[in-house]
UniProtKB/TrEMBL annotation:
PANTHER family: LEUCINE-RICH REPEAT AND IQ DOMAIN-CONTAINING PROTEIN 1-RELATED, LEUCINE-RICH REPEAT-CONTAINING PROTEIN 9. Residues 1-52 are annotated as: Disordered. Keywords: Leucine-rich repeat, Membrane, Repeat, Transmembrane, Transmembrane helix. The chain crosses the membrane at residues 57-79. PROSITE patterns: LRR. This is Leucine-rich repeat domain-containing protein.
Amino acid sequence: MGSFGPESSGTGSSRTGSFGPENSGMGSSGMEAFHGEDKDAPAGKGPAASRRGKKRALVIGAGAVLVLAAGGFLIFSLFGDKTVEWADSNMEQMICQGLDLPREEIKESDLEAVRVLRICGDQVQLYEDTGEEAQEPLTNVSGVSLGKSRQITSLEDLKYFPNLEILQIRDAYAGEGTAFQDEADGGQGLEALGQLKNLRVLDLSANDLEDLEGISEITQLEELILSSNSISDISPLEGMNKLKKLDLSFNQVTELERLSSLKLTSLDVEGNQIMEIDPLAQITTLEEVNLSSTKVVDFTPLLELEKLTSLGLSNLGLGSLSGISAFGNLTKLDLSENCIDDIRELSELTGLKELDLESNRITDVSTLSALTQLTVLNVGDNELTDVSYLGALTELTELVIYLNDVTDLSFLSGLANLTLLDASSLECTDFSAVTKLHGLTSLDLGFNDLTEAGFLDELTNLEHLDLGWNDLTDVQDLTHLESLRRLNIWANDIADVGGLSQLTRLEELDVSSNDFADFSPICQLENLESLEASNNERIMSIEGISRLKKLKSLDLGDTLINSLGALQGMKELRYLRLNGTNITTGDCEDLRELENLQTLMLGDTQIDSGIYEVLDALPGLTRLEMASNNLSGGCDSLAELKNLEILSLSSTGIDDLGGIRGLSYLRELWLYALPLEDIGPLSDLEHLEILSLSKTGVRDLRALSGLSRLEELDLSENGIVDLSPLSGLTNLRELNIEENQVEDLSPLSGLANLEELDMDENQVISLEPLAGLSKMIYLSVQKNQISDVTPLAGMTRLRTLYLDDNNISDVSALYDLPLIKIDISGNPVASGR
């Protein structure tokens, strides 16, 4: 039940959404907050990145940047000062790249002038001022994590930056306080930040932080970003009285009492396990709150927040908006990914400027015509047929209406201020109304059966265009759109991409799943950073691609290429996908020079065990996929790839896992269909979160008993009888044990976080051990020997249930469950309700 206030008491709703890890609502605006980036596009190509590109800068090494300030170079003294003595070699390397200086030429006074330091993965920026440019957070351009062994393990060297005001270390710290501190060589942790007396803004997101001890020393801090870590204890924040903005999204926080004395203006706790928000009533200074993807059902404490203007309530299972009109000061509201079908009460929130209603059950948006101050609106993925009422919202700059049954877009002609429009997946055949929207910079018309794009002729300001999954046969209609930086034309019938050579500003291009053979026009796009050309079965040669010196991400999967010589010299490549090609081990010799490569995908190619010699030259790999190749034997050579976090060896014939024993940073391991007798080496991989052992023949699970971080585990199609080694894996969310010989489920009784369980085709008689698993959403117990389903009565979140082919005669215990799908076929169920 979701409750906004006294008048909503008693209204029911079901739980299910997301505000987005990058767009958590804390001061973000526009489509970045509601619609996000294309899910397959590398990060860092948004407005922030483009603004940074307009400022004079010197690009160094692996994405490092020395930014010019105050109209001139940041001057570094090279004489008469003490040379910096670094405590952390990785920090040293990052700063050397950032300054484009060898270590012996970096003096202490050089670093004293730095006011802003941003490190994100392998990207580095330093600024001597805190102007608008320096305020932009750095994003990981490559989209791939920097290897843990190359991350900072000690923060002691921050003492050389005494005047820092803004510090960002995102996805680049693996020292004290993180999940990987045991692999670090010691050194100072967060307590080292206490020496930065001028620090106002600190971003430590995505660092696997578990412990905040020492952070309370930064008493003058005004903004703290701790998103995407593993923090549960926030007591160190209790005395940080100058803190105004706090981002704790996507952690493991369960209570907010420790924050009640703070004078926050902005708080983001999205994606935590919070149930009660009573302490927020005491933080009367709050202006922005994001509660998306939490367990909160009672919102009445928010009524005490008279200054509240921004509220995130995505993915909370809301079915009713009764009482929301009490929040009359709101200018920004996110209600996406809920179960809302009636939005009439929103008509009273006339001050709204940004509204997200994506992924609900809305059929009528006439109410919204009264919200004339709206500038950003998302009603995508609903049940709409008529959106003409939106024509009254003439202040709109961004509009998302995708995945609705809309047939008429004529209302768009009056929305002259639009800069972003997503009208993908509609039932419309006439897009002529788009023609006059000359201010558009971003347009998505994917999934619309378009056969031509001539109506885009006048949209010369377009920077982002998505025409994927249509019926286009050529690109000639696009050649005059010279401002394009991102173009997606995947899944069309394009046989000739020659016209693309004129789009010289392109930075991202997706031409996958088309029908062209000539790759050469693409090789003229020298500003490309990301290229997806997979599933073009006529491409045999990529000759000339070495001209694309800026390319960081390349997907050539499922093409007919049989040579990689053209990739020589492409040292900026971070991501390379070659799955489904005819590439051999010999061809891969040309990969040795790709020293910055972090992701390599060679699944279903023609490589053999000789590939290990090539991999020895790529120690920076964090993700390696070699599934469906003939690599029979051991994998000892993998032991040198210390940075691996994701590894797929499925269907390779490998029968000895000794080589992965020391890969301590592994998070995901895929071993499907390997002939394994001994999985003992897995016991050392304590950071594993996802593990597939399906169809391996494994029966003894004792090696898994200590893998406490496991969240997803696939043990299907083995001969397993005893599940007792799994009893301590309390972080498991998904478990697949189908097609085994399991009779006793009691070892699963304590796995309170289980959300999905698949146990088809076992010998289970009783479901009683599952009775306490209240978070279960999906349960499949087909083809067992079950007769009693009463233990499932307490699974109040269960949506999908498969019970077919058992011995069940009474299902009355299931009547009150919020099931969306149930299958009880093949059971002797009595007729009735």
